[in-house]
Design a protein that fits this description.
6-stranded antiparallel beta barrel, 1 helix, globular
Length: 98
């Protein structure tokens, strides 16, 4: 597992993002997809997966005890940007870094 510090917001993003490289899962209407969490913030996450769910899909991000409903905001290649349905607590973000 690798992690970088919880950095400041960049560009249009208003939430700080933490870079990581850890396993996760996406539960989709089409089945469960193995994924790698690349970065996470209180508002969303960037994940890599073999099969990218379509933009606009409703998914559930799962990493350990963290389970968060989300929407696929964008997709490109094997990466998707998730927008969480609600802002998660900063403590939840920090759990993913440990």
């Amino acid at each position: 597992m690798g992690a970088e510090t919880f950095g400041t917001a960049v560009g249009k993003r208003q939430a700080k993002r933490a870079r990581v490289l850890i396993t996760a899962k996406l539960q989709t209407p089409f089945g469960e997809i193995d994924a790698r969490l690349r970065d996470i913030s209180r508002k969303g996450a960037l994940v890599e997966c073999g099969v990218a769910p379509p933009v606009g899909s409703e998914v559930v991000f799962v990493r350990g005890q963290t389970v968060i409903p989300a929407r696929v905001a964008w997709a490109g290649g094997n990466r998707v940007g998730l927008e969480f349905h609600y802002m998660i607590d900063e403590h939840e973000v920090m759990i993913q870094l440990k």
